[in-house]
Amino acid sequence: MKYLFSIFFVFAAGLLHAQSVQSPSKKIELNFKLVGNGQVSYTANYNGKPVILESTLGIKLKEKQALDANFEILSSKVTTFNESWKPVLGQKANILNQYNELTISLKQKETNVKMNIIFKVYDEGVAFRYDFPQQENLNYFIISDEVSQFNLTEDYKAFWIPGDFDSNEYVYNETKLSEIDNSKLDLNNGIGVKSIPSKYAVQSPLMMKSPTGLYVNIFEAAVVNYPVMHLNLNVANFKLSSQLVPNAIGDKAYLQTPCVSPWRTIMISDDARDIVGSQMILNLNEPCEIEDVSYIKPTKYVGIWWEMHVGKSTWDLSGTQDASQKSAGKKPHGATTENTKRYIDFAAKNGFDGVLVEGWNTGWEDWFGNWKEEVFDFTTPYADFNIAEVAAYAKEKNVKMIMHHETSGSVANYERHLDRAFDLMKKYDYPAVKSGYVGKIIPRGEFHDGQTMVNHFNFVARRAADYKIMINSHESSRPTGYSRTYPNYIAAEAARGNEFNAWSVGNPPSHETILPFTRLLGGPMDYTPGIFEIKMSYYDKSKKEQVHTTLTKQLALYVTMYSPLQMAADLLENYEKRADAFQFIKDVALDWDDTKILEAEPGDYVTIARKTKGKESWFLGAITDENARKSEIKLDFLTKGQKYKAIIYEDAKDADWKNNPMAYKIKTVEVTSKSKINLVLAPGGGTAISFEPIK
Amino acid sequence: MKYLFSIFFVFAAGLLHAQSVQSPSKKIELNFKLVGNGQVSYTANYNGKPVILESTLGIKLKEKQALDANFEILSSKVTTFNESWKPVLGQKANILNQYNELTISLKQKETNVKMNIIFKVYDEGVAFRYDFPQQENLNYFIISDEVSQFNLTEDYKAFWIPGDFDSNEYVYNETKLSEIDNSKLDLNNGIGVKSIPSKYAVQSPLMMKSPTGLYVNIFEAAVVNYPVMHLNLNVANFKLSSQLVPNAIGDKAYLQTPCVSPWRTIMISDDARDIVGSQMILNLNEPCEIEDVSYIKPTKYVGIWWEMHVGKSTWDLSGTQDASQKSAGKKPHGATTENTKRYIDFAAKNGFDGVLVEGWNTGWEDWFGNWKEEVFDFTTPYADFNIAEVAAYAKEKNVKMIMHHETSGSVANYERHLDRAFDLMKKYDYPAVKSGYVGKIIPRGEFHDGQTMVNHFNFVARRAADYKIMINSHESSRPTGYSRTYPNYIAAEAARGNEFNAWSVGNPPSHETILPFTRLLGGPMDYTPGIFEIKMSYYDKSKKEQVHTTLTKQLALYVTMYSPLQMAADLLENYEKRADAFQFIKDVALDWDDTKILEAEPGDYVTIARKTKGKESWFLGAITDENARKSEIKLDFLTKGQKYKAIIYEDAKDADWKNNPMAYKIKTVEVTSKSKINLVLAPGGGTAISFEPIK
């Protein structure tokens, strides 16, 4: 790890009204300027061409004068930073954090309130934040609005979902900015709780592509003690501005100086791969706060879960609650001691780390949709789930149990029980918990993406760290790199996961080609890939739902969707029937020395190769959207001079996500770094390859 | 304990539109009637004269049809109930619960929603509640408003405080109903957080007296999973209606059938003593839910507390936070190990049960007024408070430590730490905790008196019961008898306590003569009496504040203000200086076999005698308002044939709360049940008497 830190300029107050800073590669330039009546503004250029036109920044305060004008510059400072750091688990063993920084120290003339704007300019983009130093004139304050502008030059194509305060589980829309309109969406999409504030509000990260092929992504990093930022669009002029998620009484954030806003990020590149491969969001977060990270381990797991999604068993003991929530007759309860032992046996036999059991605890008979406060107590097993017996059996088989805490959105209730819930986990040696937040939030009036909930999700991670427990949150606000600081926050769902394919319109084949440009920028996603029985008609002839994929695309997702926590989501028997394909899931690594983004185009395709942490083996995943695709891949990422056995899992010739999704072939070839491989992907298909060094 | 239970009438649907029921003594009559368009109404008479004119009842629902009209009667039932039960701690060893009950089963014509109105008619008043049975047509529902009317006949004199959603710490106003107007109040009264919704909103309990001398009190009992009910007044026609306290988004209550509202109570008597002596509120609560009550004990305590109120020491270690919150210079921290040991020594020497220490834990440097969320963690002692050493010392001296949890209104934070806080208490053998809720509530937007907070206060009592811990809440919503169900909820402040006398306009001499008619009806109050150094100029010559009392009135309060948890609030040295008067505080009991309300007039005077639980000793307390008072008391409550040594602590001849408050005399006489005692009370004065049987 090395630091280079040099101060370039320090200007005296009042002498300066504009300042610029470039990225290390000089491709990106950020220009700061005071305009109009002392308003803070910036522009951003890429290769000399404007990307962000003059955009102003400001914070509105409750019961205080807005911090959006009348500023004068006290000083300005440019520094260079160059570091590399080692994530506990990650896409690379060493992450480079290199940028030039511009700090503008401001004072508002009338109020004497001081505020700094800090810009960091990376090779793949710009970040800025508001910084409120400790001062006499500003101690506690309430943000009623943030007005950060991102004024684009033209009508980009955007990959967008509505700026819903409560859900990020949407299918992406691919339209021009000028065509964005939430009122035209079909909202019969399986999402339980929706709070869309307006027609032109979209979520960040917002991935865009200009008509000339420039890729721009607006997002944020280090959302800590602050609400999520969505974006409001002016469809007429392509001006975007920040939309903070409010609390129950319309306030946005409660802060005390010294404090900072999250980083607002604008990634810019003419190569889409730079966006997918960026570690900028992680870099903008604080270093690891956990001293003993020994318990934070890559975790591959199976679990009692998909069987409820396909309607084979239920979460509740009384046998009515499968994922359809309209189960006609009584079905078997999934989380029995006996069924759990079957999963433990399977995990042990196939080298999996863990077994998740959902529906193990009382409360599922009436858990959803009624804004109910006392739903679960997180400590009382159903009568047919003997937690002590299960724990002993898992220990005997050297498998870890993964806890499940569905909160039903009743966060107040969860926090009241959290210590007891974690105590139970420690008692029975559960090292990780999957949490869920399906439903309207309690405290009532709060949204999933407000400051209260952001704080809750981060609090749970910190509290879990007290117990050396790993967290995997579902239906949480989407991560913005906090897993750098609390790497026990090992994964989150926080986007439309694979489960929607089982009982809703599902996720189109392009979905997983967009997520690496959006959701995955903030941290690992528990997407739950690995579905081998792709059509739900297998379980119930009347069902038309299916996963929008071929079988080998499900394999490729283990590589394209980075997560150190990965589920093999399908039923055990479906894996046993296709042991040859299942071999890839058994083999694939979860933690990496290096990652190469080989190909990427949002909405179309992604091809990624990764080197196993501490080993010579590599894995490659390639996926496509609804279109078939051919591609020649150079294997020059492999170690020179080393021979590898490459096992290629690919779509059969006639495979097709819709008509023939489960046709695949497996072939083995010997390759070196000089080899090339021709990828042939079916419509909605994918290829997965493991490269094992030949000794 | 005996039950008499007989069904008088069951009518078939539609046959009946009116029904009446009388109290056991037949003094009070309750009449139910369907009026207008199927509206539920009632009237109440006392000795044949109307007290409540036709008043309608109804519940408004969010997103559902209001339950306020179009009802038909399905059936009606009258039953008689007669029971006596033993409170764990109480004013009497056996409490009689005797009433006639009328249940009206209703169905709304259009919606088929069923609702019952249950009336209980006691000799001292009427109670009714809404009862929502489990039914197909009503499961989860949200109450947007309750419209229960209490239409009075005339312009009563009222003892009222504003219907503040956040505070009950007001001085009572004594005006006619027609003169009620919150906008005319002087709100420079020391209350930190105020939320007064309108000019004519007043709190319940509302104590009133008619021009002809009828006493009427409107209150509620068993407020569980429901907000507090205040009252809106129409000053023109003396109609009162329910004002439920809203939550952050304006909703009142979230309920699921089967469920009930709290009881709405109307106490009526021509003898004011019946109101003070009523156990109706307790009777309307559910029986004790705690199996092992052995840890619930009367607790007399001293503590590090008043010294912060008088500005002698501070809550915070850095020495800035005394009760003035504007301490000019650095003062000593109160909660040191050494100072605590001094209190332990004193408690041990004088037979006290416990020692309270406030300011023992980190966070007090910045604890108030900023809606701060993470204020205290309830587990980290200041460096100068060695909790282990203190606990060991207390154990050695056979004294119990009393914990202190100030939440600063940040309830979300408290709930996150509650198990840890209680764990710490058990570790160090603290059997009781005083909790505080000074400040605006977090979750933000909630009020102290909303459903969320009512649930919080009750939740803390239940959670404490898990640990066998007693709770004494300050700045909570006022109790409505939940201590019958959870007797470990041993006391609460929840009204303007003695502390206000130290640093604000304080409490006028009449204050303690009103509380037995209002706040005390719902349960014990930790008023913290026993101040011997009455004028704050003793500590700081510039101070004009004082307790509005004579010294012996402070003694009398131990009898007139029932609580099984009582503080001797003054500094130890002030007691040591007046050991003769202090003897009464040492002697007085906290738990009683019997209670006699000898004299009572709201705003003027109260005289109460109580017999010690399980012993032959009695104690008498008599207090007056700003007027001197003489009274002859018959001692016929004493056991016939038994001789007693009566020690009389009374105001000296020239005593006066303002000019000469600390002048007292003590005399001893021998008395029997045939004796009389002449009470002579100074302006703002009082008399305390202990009766010890002579063997």
UniProtKB/TrEMBL annotation, chains A, B:
Gene3D superfamilies: 2.70.98.10, Aldolase class I
Signal peptide location: 1-18
Pfam families: GH97_C, GH97_N, Glyco_hydro_97
Names of the cofactor(s): Ca(2+)
Glycosyl-hydrolase 97 N-terminal domain span: 21-287
Ranges where the Glycosyl-hydrolase 97 C-terminal oligomerisation domain occurs: 591-691
UniProt keyword annotations, A-Z: Calcium, Signal
Glycosyl-hydrolase 97 catalytic domain residues: 305-495
GO molecular function annotations of the record: carbohydrate binding
SUPFAM superfamilies according to UniProt: (Trans)glycosidases
Assembly mode: Monomer.
Protein name as catalogued: Alpha-glucosidase
Native source organism of the sequence: Flavobacterium laiguense
